[in-house]
Structure formats: structure tokens, C-alpha cells
Amino acid sequence: MRKVRVHITNKQKRSITPDIRDIVRSCCAQVLADEHFHCDAEVNVTFVSDEEIRSLNRSFRDIDRPTDVLSFPLGENGTYDKDPGSGLAQLGDVVISFDTAVRQANEFGHSIDREVAFLTVHSMLHLLGYDHMNKIDERIMHEKEDKALNTLGIYRGISPVWAVEDIFSRLEMREKTIALAKKRGIGKETDTYKVTRIACEISETSKPYEWYSAECMILRGGSIIGGYVVRFDTNGDLIDDDII
Description:
It is built from 6 helices and 8 strands. It is an alpha/beta fold. Helix content is 36%, strand content 28%. The strands form 2 sheets. It has a 4-stranded mixed beta sheet, with helices on both faces. The protein folds into 2 domains: 154 residues, Collagenase (Catalytic Domain), CATH 3.40.390.30; 74 residues. About 5% of the residues have low confidence.
């Protein structure tokens, strides 16, 4: 197995525990091992706030909102510059919003360790040239993510909610769900809406996923007064919805 030097920097207020740091290093090493990377390498992983990652999104992607992770590859077509001193291939930078990672871990009911593990594996694959711009590439990334996480004993569980991000972002899905609930006239103007669950249905056919669903709770004065469930197809188009 090739070696990887992982530089971890914390630029936000929450503490990054030694366990999380170990998980990040293990995930980086596992992806390189799975990909049979040709030489020893170096990668930078930085934890930032939502505010900081939103600023990066504005600067580099013309997107004015926070996302969970950003990847900045330094290689091109499998070729990477090497540090003159260490001889390590320079893979690039992984930037994780710890604010969003914590929020998503809470929303999906799993640990922050698991959330950070997935984001690290996902971003490392981007550094190695993988993407998910079409369904074939998306499926390849899913399989590689699963392989790395499963090897490390980090399982997605029955409902692979992380897959949603690769079709349309979880943030976008929350916004669409809440917008649809309001459009249906559910609740009052003073009510608040919170998407508490996002899931996907696994297909038995060749397609990896059939549809995605989101569950929205309507809150009034801190109390739940109702709910709303919506399903989207893999293009993000509405299939059906229901008041609960």
C-alpha cells in the first residue's frame, strides 16, 4: 500500500477529535489503496465553518450557499506534480464544512464520524478525477465509496441516504420540499418547516435508485402540528406528495 501524508487543519470553532482525524487519514489511505495509486502522496484536509465554505462556493463556483464538502484537485489526467523535497504527489485540497457535517449527521441519525468518513472518501475520489455528472459516472462513484467505507467497517445501513447528494444536493432537496409544502397551503405564515428525513428506494433493476423521498415537519410555537411527505424521481421531478 502506498503511503499518504494527510495534513489536517481546523479553521472553525468546534474541536476535531483525534478519532475524527484518524478516520480522515484512514479514508484517504483506503481510497488510494483501492485505486492502486502509483506513488506516495500528500493531501490537505481543512475543516471550516458554513460561512467560510459559502465564501469559497461564491468565489469558485458562483454558488451563494454552504455545501458539505469541496474538492480542489491539483492533478490532471492522472498526472500530479511532486513536492521537490519529499517526492510526494500533490493530490490537492479537501474542504469540509464541519457545521454542515454535524447538521447532516443529526438529520440522518448517524454519527459525525460516519458523516466525515463519507465526505472524505467522496472528495478523495474527486481529487483522483472521478465525478458524477451522468448516471454511469454517478454509479461508479457510489460503488467506489461503498467499497472504501465497507473495507473500513463504516456501513451506510439500510437506507443509503448519502446517495441523494449525487443526484441533487440535500440542501436543494430540503428547499424543494419546504417550497412544495408552502405551495400546497400547509400551515400558516408564522409556522416553521424542518425536513427531518431524506431516504431513497433501491431498485431491483439495473438502475441503482428509483426515487427519493423527504419528510417535512411543520412546527408552530415549537410543537409539531403536522407533516408533509414528498417523492422525487432521479431527475428531481415530483412523483407524488401527501399530508401526514
